[in-house]
Specification:
Two copies of one chain form a homodimer. Chain A has 21 helices and 13 strands. By secondary structure, the first copy, chain A, is of the alpha+beta class. In chain A, strands 3, 4, 5, 6, 7, 10 and 11 form a seven-stranded mixed β-sheet that branches. The longest helix of chain A is centred in the middle third of the chain and has 37 residues, at about 280-320. Chains A and B meet through strand 12, helix 10, helix 11, helix 12 and helix 13 of A and strand 12, helix 10, helix 11, helix 12 and helix 13 of B.
Chain lengths: ~600, ~600
């Protein structure tokens, strides 16, 4: 069985050539992100991923986390790995030095996060949720709360959770029923939450739940939701965990994948909680956590795709079966067969495209935070806002496809659990669901991110793509020239859809939303194709005698255009013409078979 | 949790309006297939599926088959269900009356098979393999073998298996090493076989293994493979099971899905076997079983898709979440949301398209067997040969996508095993692998079915599609008119690809095979779109006042065109232009990240 090896060459190429790490490092506060430091961090993270997390990935899946009498035992090796995670300071990379963080760019933290997730997605979910909770607290919490909690959470000795979902309230948070009643300087929280990732576990000495609930006089719907911090153990005056709070794990779920990650049913029975920010503003605070989490789930798509690709590639180079179509004679490794090669190229090219887009968006987050000029900040933030649902939706959907291709490359062995390929598919399958389904992402993209600003940000992207075409035109490379018309057709498809969405969102909202997911996919492949074309141009400039990496990058970019981006005009037709058909059947007609 | 209900209306519509059951029933030997008899069979099969097989599907998955000391215990209820299956004569439908069969058309048996598979895919695999073994024996076995085995197998008291794969010989049967040494009127078989579906179980009193092996003097490669019948118990002179043969189950696999279906490692240790047909002709006999099995696996795609759709539809009609985009106000069932509706329509339309194509191919099998005129027989057989890889490859790939959409419609609940939606995805995932991967199907399509006859059969299909366009042109229905240009573009895409394949198979075989799977998908969606357009025309003629079924059929056909068939030109570009890109990377370049 192959071990995970971080694709450091590609990561560094994307960081430096596409995402502009050098410019990010010039932003105020990111002075630490020198090339040497970043290289050292990536090397260390790569070792941690390969040596500590990868070896407990399959065993963790087979054992799963186990609930007993309200406590959850994580699989063998998880506790030790988490201790190493804390000792290595991996949880503190992107946070302010003031609270013990290392003050590194989101961009650098993103590459590290990809490695941890590739090597062990179930493990990585605990830090992921903790980081979301830290963000929300950092931005919205009162100073006293920050003092008590942030240091512990950033250091990793305490972990965090997001408590949104209730049995009747999934995507629709207006239906949240958990109650919060004021009692002096705190509140009493009562209710049941489900699908709480790492809601209970044995990795850390305390768990900090961020919980959505309603106060007695709150207005109905999402405008009446407040955010509360509910610790598992109430901190003593010295800051160490004290009395056990009435936040208990009633059970954990039996899931298709991410078996090592406990998904808890949490019962709050008059538990002590502290208001985060102001009453009734919980939803907007939640979106702080949510947006970071959505980006991270998109990155999970990249990470699982990379891991699945590596496993499939190793198998395809080893497994002897069949003869070469042209050369005949002896039995060859299956990588020599065109269809196996096609599957590997689909895996490789889409993984690289998704990575490039995610890292570019991460860099834009850094610019949006730190650049001095306000207009520039807003421009970057608008790009981030437009792209978060694309990174989340497209990379997660594609991650599943790639994990499934990974099974396919293995043939019959892929269906056998011991091989390990099937686990990636099972794990990946959650990514299009949690932190907002693909449908929710697509609705956000079409409604909030495009219709609301009359397509201004999306049109700026189209303008940039057209400008970039002129850059492509100057290349003499035949592979790059072959990509040009495909990317141009993709750009035109996006432009058509944006016009359609802006023109029709008011008068035919159902029809427009019926095409939201196909449009999200279109945005994904065009943005991915754009990044791959940028990568090809950069690789062309760096090409020297035997540079396998750069030559592969150019060929891979062309493959992406001809096998993936080529679907753009079809998706455009579906978006622009297919809306009515989605809503054509009545309820009775659905039952008439 | 919803129970399976056979989609009898759609099945009958397809049987009668698209597959020509009335004409099939006129073929010599099929006189029994009167409308009343067929209706009665479908009703009974539907009851058997819903009442006997569906209730043990989820529990069977959770329990799995269990190996102990060489014996395999199937999950609770399977034995009882199998007894009912035998008592109902369900295994005998399509076989000759001479051996106890009911002599019914393949077309009718196909509808029954779909129901059994929808309700319990793991269970259905035992009959599926038995039927393949019966076919091979019927066509290639000596009279004495037939007399001893066929009656028992058709009645179902003995089951059959296919023993092809060995650890080093998966898709590449040239590598088979199992040995067969002649000893009087029988042979002694020694070797190990893996991935043997129902290789051992407790459902029947005997198991009849059909085993590929080599005699000592056999030529190398596939030309030296012979087929042997190896019974678990050697029949006594009175035909009842006697001495235990040395064919033993060493273990069963731990798989992603179809947990109730035991996948055996079989060890033959000097086991007694009987030659089927002649020495060294085993591969061609194997293809008899294989082709029937490939069609059946395609049908598994249809069946799982139907089951997944029914479950998702039931959930979407029940689950309250969010407000209607236009009407606002109250919380509505999620089927009211455009993206959920889009997913359901993708599931419904593709399932119906796949069913229509599979049944039409089943009818062509009947014509190819029974029609008097030899030219007509050949014409039908050529169509069947062209379409078997499409039915297998396209329906299985699409079945997985649909099962995955089924998970998605359920949101977070879809990831929880108790919901049942995830099982369909896990079960479906094997269908693109066994009986020849999608890559193998696509290679068969491009090489044996198109290049070999210079595209004659495929071009005949294109001609028929063009003729059919004139028929569509006569309809006044706006939905049908909207489909026309999309189907025409699909037809042109197929025509272009066939020309490309015929022109290049000789000089650029790697490039052509690199596009084989995209071409197979193209063939699937165009053939499916053709059947849906035929369905729309037939529905238009049958439309009356409140006929929900026919109205839904027309709208569903249009949806298929605008959301699925619309991808045809993109696939054409990938096939025709994308071949070179697939093979562009060297082995070292694959490792250069």
């Amino acid at each position: 069985m192959s071990a995970y090896t971080a694709p450091l060459k590609d990561m560094k190429f994307v960081l430096n050539e596409l995402a502009g790490l050098a410019d990010v490092a010039k932003l105020p506060g990111y002075q630490e992100a020198t090339p040497d430091t970043v290289d050292a961090i990536l090397e260390e993270a790569s070792k941690f991923a390969t040596e500590i997390l990868d070896p407990i990935n399959y065993s963790g899946d087979q054992e799963g986390s186990v609930w007993k009498d309200g406590a959850v035992a994580t699989p063998r090796g998880f506790k030790h790995a988490y201790q190493q995670y804390v000792a290595g300071g991996w949880g503190s990379l992107p946070f302010e030095a003031q609270w013990g963080g290392q003050g590194l760019p989101k961009l650098v933290a993103t590459a590290v996060e990809e490695m941890l997730t590739s090597s062990n997605m179930s493990f990585s979910l605990c830090p992921l949720l903790t980081q979301g909770a830290i963000h929300a607290l950092e931005l919205c919490g009162a100073e006293a709360l920050k003092k008590t909690y942030l240091g512990k959470m950033i250091e990793g000795s305490w972990t965090g959770t997001m408590n949104l979902t209730e049995p009747q309230a999934g995507s629709d948070l207006a239906l949240v029923r958990t109650r919060a009643v004021r009692e002096g300087d705190h509140y009493r929280i009562s209710g049941q939450k489900i699908f709480i990732t790492y809601g209970e576990h044995d990795l850390a000495e305390n768990i900090v739940h961020l919980v959505l609930a309603r106060t007695p006089e709150a207005p109905e719907g999402v405008k009446g939701i407040s955010l509360f911090l509910v610790p598992k153990f109430l901190p003593k005056p010295d800051g160490t965990p004290g009395e056990r709070n009435a936040a208990r794990c009633a059970s954990i779920e039996h899931k298709l994948g991410i078996h090592a990650s406990p998904t808890a049913v949490m019962v709050f029975d008059n538990a002590v909680g502290y208001l985060v920010g102001e009453e009734n503003k919980g939803l907007s605070y939640m979106f702080v956590m949510m947006n970071a989490a959505r980006f991270s789930v998109g990155l999970e798509g990249v990470a699982i795709a990379e891991r699945a690709f590596q496993r499939a590639l190793a198998y395809a180079r080893e497994r002897l079966q069949g003869k070469d179509l042209v050369e005949g004679a002896s039995t060859v490794p299956i990588i020599r067969h065109p269809d196996v090669r096609r599957m590997l190229m689909l895996m490789k090219s889409q993984t690289e495209a998704m990575r490039a887009l995610a890292y570019v968006v991460a860099a834009a987050m850094d610019f949006a935070q730190k650049v001095e000029d306000k207009n520039q900040r807003q421009k970057h933030q608008a790009f981030v806002d437009l792209m978060i649902p694309v990174v989340k939706g497209w990379s997660s959907e594609t991650g599943i496809e790639i994990a499934s291709l990974g099974v396919q490359v293995h043939g019959g062995m892929g269906f056998i659990e011991e091989t390990g390929a099937a686990q990636h598919l099972r794990d990946a399958r959650i990514t299009t669901i949690y932190e907002g389904t693909t449908g929710i992402q697509a609705g956000d993209l079409v409604g909030r991110k495009i219709a609301r600003d009359s397509g201004a940000t999306a049109k700026a992207l189209v303008t940039e793509l057209k400008r970039f075409d002129a850059e492509l035109a100057r290349s003499k490379n035949p592979d790059i020239q072959a990509m040009r018309p495909v990317l141009a057709a993709g750009t035109a498809a996006v432009a058509d859809c944006v016009d359609y969405i802006v023109a029709n969102a008011g008068k035919d909202v159902r029809g427009v939303f019926a095409g939201a997911v196909p449009f999200l996919k279109l945005m994904g492949i065009v943005a991915g194709g754009w990044q791959m074309a940028r990568a090809a141009l950069a690789a062309e400039k760096l090409l020297s005698g035997d540079s396998n990496f750069y030559q592969a990058k150019i060929k891979t970019a062309r493959f992406f255009a001809e096998h993936v981006l080529v679907q753009a005009p079809g998706l455009r037709d579906t978006v622009v013409k297919g809306g009515a058909g989605v809503m054509a059947l009545s309820d009775e007609q659905f039952l008439a078979s």
